[in-house]
Amino acid sequence: MSDHEPQTAIRCAVVALNGGPSDPRIVRLAIDLARPSKSILVGVHVVEIDWTLPLDADVAGRSEDTQRVLDLAEQIADHARYRIEPVLLQARDVGAALVDEATERSADLLILGLPYRKRFGGDFAIGRTIPYVLKNAPCAVWVVRDPIPEEGP
Amino acid sequence: MFVLVVGGGKVGYYLAKELVEAGHEVVLLEKDRARADQIADEIGSIVLAHDGCEGKYLGEAGANRADIVAAVTGDDEDNLVICQMAKHHFDVPRTIARVNNPKNESLFKHLGVDEIISPTRMILGSIEQDIPVHELLHLGTLGGSDLELIEAPLQAGSPAIGRSPNDLTIPEGCALFAVVRAGRAMPLRADMTLAVGDKVIAIGRAECEAALHSQLMGETEAVGG
Q: Which of A8, B43, B95, B166 could pair with B83 as two cysteines, CB 3.0-4.6 Å apart?
């Protein structure tokens, strides 16, 4: 490989699971990307804890919905005969937690799904997690936006 | 310890930063979004861009479980409202308010703010220590009480000169506990003779001041007399 060619092989990718419809898509894409180089895949689901509760309050562990998010990612990975390491985090801010996890694991890539949604008034809403991650993540960031839903009749 | 800081000016910013570095759990409320974003960029996602004068936002910031609420905005009225809400609506055990106008101090105390920090008073006290005065100097308030720490510089003509502390009639609720002499602090002893240049350190309520002044510095002269 010449010095000018981008390095595409990844060692570790963090896949952000938001519990929405984009999760299956980004898990499959992550597996396709990871398989050739047998990269480590870490599926991270962050439960945001507001300031009225201490950060170590037992919230995420008790939630079946939360467990379901990770179970779904593992099922998709099993089906594709690949392994994804499930990680459940509690944090004040999803973006900061994802960046911290990617930093701690020295990940090469952080993959996020972005649901296509509009705010009141009709403008596309990117939310606050993606801009935070794009601004602060130490590694490459891959944002997979959901397709624009077809207009009804 | 969980500290809720309201006001993201210079004081709030550095206070939050120091507390975070000391390992405390901190949330900072700053109503100006641009300023809030700027602080969040520097010290992390502990900043909420809301007006701390609104109970709803104090609640969102976790006032219900805060150990301390520090209201350090540049506006005395806002700081008072924040402390009042924290104390009476959220049962915060300790409230601290920045008071810019020293005239508001007694109001804050009267309305139950636990601790008052007055930068104006502090600077004034510092200046007064460097100029010859014939008044008692306020060094500060004892945390969580209405007791003042007072310094009485003894000058020629003071009725306390040449007498021992036992010879003085100290008002009830007030205590003399130390003397600073030639730059050295020493506990006040019964066999001690007070001298010119001594600084007597006392502690007591504001209402004791006149009697203390009379014993240590003489009667107050009428202004303009």
A: B95
DSSP label at A5?
Answer: S
What distance in Å separates the CA atoms of residue A16 and residue A10, rounded to the nearest whole number? 16
User: Over the range B174-188, which residues count as b (16 or more CB within 10 Å of their CB) and which as e?
Assistant: bebeebebeeeeeeb
The pLDDT assigned to B132 comes to: 60
Tell me how far apart the 2 most distant CA atoms of chain A are, in Å: 53
Residues sharing a CB contact under 8 Å with residue B218, sequence separation 6 or more, in sequence order: B157, B158, B159
Compute the distance between CA of residue B33 and CA of residue B8 in angstroms, rounded to an integer. Answer: 10
Q: How would residue B222 be classed by pLDDT, with cut points 50, 70 and 90? A: very low
The answer to whether residue A7 neighbours chain B at the CB level (below 8 Å) is no
Q: State the complex-level ipTM.
A: 0.73
Tokens linked to A100: 């911290």
Q: Which residues pair with A91 in a beta bridge?
A: A48
Give burial (CB, 10 Å; 0-12/13-18/19+) of B225: exposed
Do the chains contact at A93 and B25, CB–CB below 8 Å? no
Nearest Cα neighbor of B16 from B69, B53, B55 is: B69
Residue listed under structure tokens 């944002």: A143
Residue B6 in this model has a pLDDT that exceeds 60: yes
How large is the C-alpha radius of gyration of chain B?
Answer: 21
Digit-coded pLDDT (tens) for B111-163: 989 999 988 888 877 776 666 666 787 777 776 677 888 888 888 888 888 98
Interface of A with B in 55-114 (CB under 8 A): 55, 92-93, 95-96
Cα–Cα distance between B140 and A39 in angstroms, integer? 62
| Interface contact B44-A95, CB threshold 8 A | no
